[in-house]
Design goal:
Layout lengths: L1 H6 L7 H9 L7 H35 L3 H4 L4 H33 L8 H4 L3 H4 L1 H8 L2 H34 L7 H19 L2 H19 L3 H12 L2 H22 L5 E4 L4 E6 L9 E7 L1 H12 L3 E4 L1 H10 L11 H18 L22
Parallel strand pairs: 1-4
Antiparallel strand pairs: 1-2, 2-3
Length: 376
Amino acid sequence: MAEESSGERSEEPTGRRLEQAREKGQIARSKELGTAAVLISAACGFYMLGPSLAKSLTRVFETVFTMDRAQVFDTEEMFNVWGVVAGEIVWPMAKIMLLIVVVAFIGNVALGGMNFSTQAMMPKASKMSPAAGLKRMFGVQALVELTKGIAKFSVVAFSAYLLLSFYFNEILLLSSDHLPGNVYHALDLLVWMFILLCSSILLIVVIDVPFQLWNHNKQLKMTKQEVKDEYKDTEGKPEVKGRVRQMQRELAQRRMMAEVPNADVIVVNPEHFAVAIKYDVQRSVAPFVVAKGVDDVAFKIREIARAHNVTIVSAPPLARAIYHTTKLDQQIPEGLFTAVAQILAYVFQLRQYQKGRGRKPIPIPLNQPIPDELKY
């Protein structure tokens, strides 16, 4: 039972899964939306440009049907007539075609957006497999497409029947009209019937667009194991990440230990805490921490300090305060300036005394004045 539940695609697709699908050309598309956009834009184009197209047709008819006897027997006149027809019809039709092309592009990228995939263009053996072809022909997707085809035919046929029934008498009366009135009337009927007939496809679009979004999301759903594997691939395996963090800590610790010999003083707890402090006027206006640690790290800091003759001062409250309030390479807090200044003064006097240039300094008290907000 656990294996079955783990193999069930119950998880929503992750961002990476959606991005990989787009790279493969697998995005939500609705052919019905593109088809409806083309047909409706063509109908609207004829509606907007219908008057100018009707006038052009009228001039074409006048040119064709008012030829005299000399023009009929003139072989070059045929080319002149075709020139007139092209001049009158091409420009209005070109504007309609431009509108259709623009709307067709918008309609096809409205769902799923623009996407160019080289992987989708690559040949695949599965596309040439007869078994895969039969599976596509008799699969669920083929059944859905068949259902949509029947639905489109039914909706368009029923809409056409209603429109013809409604405009039947007006269509019959066209034969009794005179030019150019019957041309304008016929085009007006044709445009409105075309618009209404194309608009009937919107019923299919309203159903198909949500279905395509749902079906696309369903195809990309993931199992719980796939989500876990993707997380491991993206974020890294826990054991690898732990090892990387350990190496980073070790590297940082080695760099920190390399700074201990350059410190002016090591303030200790005396055993659990150790903080290495340096005062460099060219680098900072206040003393800063170059190394710090507890327990084993503190022991290592004291060991390196003894090996390089760095002064070690025991000041438990100050050592704890500096350790908890100051990061590496950071200046000590202003509230600890006085205590640290006393220790540095003692260290500098001790160095002079060891060189035989001054008196032996008075040992500083173990409990330095620490503000209450900095005590630990």
